[in-house]
Fold this sequence. Notes:
The complex is a heterodimer.
Chain A: H1 30-47, H2 49-57, H3 63-81, H4 86-94, E1 115-116, E2 130-131, E3 146-147, E4 154-160, H5 165-176, E5 181-183, E6 188-189, H6 203-213, E7 218-222, H7 247-266, E8 270-274, H8 282-300, E9 306-309, H9 311-315, E10 316-317, E11 320-321, E12 324-326, E13 332-334, H10 345-362, E14 363-364, H11 367-371
Parallel strand pairs in A: 3-14, 4-5, 4-6, 4-7, 7-8, 8-9
Antiparallel strand pairs in A: 1-2, 10-11, 12-13
Helix pairs in contact in A: 2-3, 5-10, 6-7, 7-8
Chain B: H1 6-22, H2 26-42, H3 47-68, H4 73-110, H5 128-144, H6 152-160, H7 162-165, H8 173-181, H9 191-222, H10 229-260, H11 278-284, H12 287-298, H13 308-326, H14 330-353, H15 363-385, H16 389-401, H17 412-423, H18 430-440, H19 444-461
Helix pairs in contact in B: 1-2, 2-6, 3-4, 3-5, 3-6, 4-5, 6-8, 9-10, 9-17, 9-18, 9-19, 10-15, 10-16, 10-17, 12-13, 13-14, 14-15
Amino acid sequence: MAVESDRAGEVGPRGPLGSPTEEGRQFSTAARALAVTALALFLAALLNAQSIYKSVYNQPEGTQREVALAIAGPLREVSMALRLDRPRAWVESAIGREHATIDTEIVLPPPLPAVTTPTGGPGTGTPVEPTNGRTPTAPAAEPEKVAFSPERKMRLWVAGDSLVITPGYAIYRALGRSAAVEKVGDVDGRVATGLTRPDVFNWFRHVTEQVEKRTIHTVVFCFGGNDDHDLMTGLPKGVSLDGFGGPKWTKEYRRRVGGLMDIVNRAGGFVVWLGLPVTDDDAQTRRWRLINRAALAEAQRRPDTVAFVDMDGLLSKDGEFASYLRNEDGELLKVRAPDGVHLERAGGDIVAREVARRVREVYDLSSWRNDDGGG
Amino acid sequence: MLFPTATFAIFFLIVLPLSWLLMPWVHRWRPFIIGASFVFYSWWDWRFVVLLAGSILWNQLMAVRVHRAAGQPGQRKMLLWLAVAGNLAVLGYFKYYDFFVSSTENLATLVGLDIPLEVRTIVLPVGISFYTFMGISYVVDVYRGDTEPTTLEKFAVYLSFFPHLVAGPIVRPNELIPQIDTPRSPRRVDTSRAFYLIAAGLFKKVVISSYLAGNIVDEVFANPDQYSSLEILIAIYAYAVQIYADFSGYTDIAIGIALLLGFTFPQNFDSPYAAVSIQDFWRRWHMTLSRWLRDYLYIPLGGSRRGVVITYRNLLLTMLLGGLWHGAGWTFVAWGLIHGVALCAERFWRERHGTKPEETFTWVDYLWRRLVTFHVVCFAWIFFRSETFGVAWDMITGLFTRWGQASPLVTGPVLLAIAVGIGSQYLPPRVPRAILAVFSRLNVVAQAAVLAVALMVTQALGPEDVAPFIYFQF
Lengths: 375, 474
């Protein structure tokens, strides 16, 4: 039996270095391969320095982020000094994309007084003016619903973090079948974003732009899945935070949640806010329930213009996480994705049914059928 | 750890030089590359490493025992079955447990029975389908006498080698173990092909696949009843290109990375949408899975040697199980069934009407055969991509019922991405060959600059967050 020597003989195509292969290309040495790889990655890092800096900046706080920033910062400085950030900017402007910038400015409507009374009501396009001095109460009499029809459609927009994507498609499925409903674009779900880090994605600016640019009657939001940590950027001057869930943190978070609701309400839109679902991680579920509490409190301050949908309750079984739930026919359906956080299609359908019910409480989407005698 | 990430770039910049430095001393190189591969794998979830290590130990133990039982055919066969059963039991638990439990419960409910079974939230370990198949092929090859059991260390490198670990290609023992036996030559590395494959793979994944997923496929497959027939048709074509760009992009990168480390992997894709028949498609699509299914399932079932009916049964069974390998769902089974039926139909046609040699094909022959094959493949993709049969049905009916409606999702860039994805498969081989020949003669700085610009353009055109590769879930 042959004994394998410690330094075994090399195997591989032999011949003089640089001799062409049968396909006309030349081989090279491992050292050269390493040199090209390292140099290419370094040059690519310089060319992409701006976007690398942004993605590093967007990471959750911690040592890894600090170390990465210590490298990405100088890299960006060198790139900008040598104008190596320009080629990527040209490519991005050629395809109509914004160059990577960090935007932490949060512009919100003035804080809401104790109660709101809609002067025009949701969906009318008339701004809802806050009225001082009253506590939120349910309307004394059933208000007349704003009616939509195929001629005047209810325009629906769904936006939020990654958790909104599957329910968002289900909501479009559930409500989009109605000829009186029109989708505003695709589901605007942006992975790894939230309300604590406008530097990652500035939802406040984005929502303001969307409601100014487009007529939107109903907005379904889902936020908070990436907000369960201490760090918040875009703080107003003089505001400091305690840790996640602390009084100062909660106050600032509620200001952002309420502000986003107000941006939509003041443009005449109705908000359906999806609370975060129960997850297979108990600690995460506890953190998310704190976020839900903040969102629910803000929704309750705007009872006529915001509805809170409790995904936690809809998707849990006896208060606990469940991957599978039965539908009304008794069929066992997988409702949660393998990661224990996101939803499967059937889970989205459960949420969508509730959202549709809440929207129909506010808007009349079906009387047009009687008007023209159609079905 | 995903290939197109900064984390992997740093990991590879550390592993590449160390691998070549240690390569002359194989006894040091092998533990190093096993360690690196385990670090790569543990990046998803460290608990998966235990499973990988268990698979290595189990298959090595069984291969050695099968080999030692030479001359005792009954015992050898029993050991082989035990080895395969062990592999399939683990795969079955992690991948199919919930599927079978929920299917059984729903079937029972349908016939009025109440059988409460417990569904669990089982996380599917990344790459388990791939390394389980590689483990099985090792034991079967030892049983057949095609290869001898190697050492535990070499087998661990074979099974865990990070370039192929999570999504293939499914490398056969006799392809990789001989390369692990002895050091690779550091003087003749095929870098130009490696860099070309890595750059092309990244572009396919980050730009083509991501663009089509985000701009038409996901939307239409989520709510097909809300889109026009044209949008549905284009979404199906787009998915065909998306899954090709995604999966072949991954394997291109894997093959390129292996080449930089001095190893050669088998080709996994060969212009599948230029296929002239379904049989031809399976010679070009996921080639390493196709030959695995042929050699370890179709042929052991009897192949085409036991009569017409058995041949058709074997084709159907192979493709059904191939479908189930892709995912624990009835839509995947339907996908496999469509391919199985198409293969049977082709065989039936050939037996009745004979085979026209490809050398005698006119351009008309090529045209209609490619069109028919492509559309059969696309029809099957509807089931592969749809989450439920209801969605698949909506897609199919929507193809015929909403022509003439506005189609805002059918945009110039979407059509361009589809055209690039399909057109690239008709590129004459001499074109990339000529590009590589020129590239290989550039100096180090020029090569690095070309690659850096390619990386910059790819990243600028791609989305901020690149979704995991589709085949990771299999």
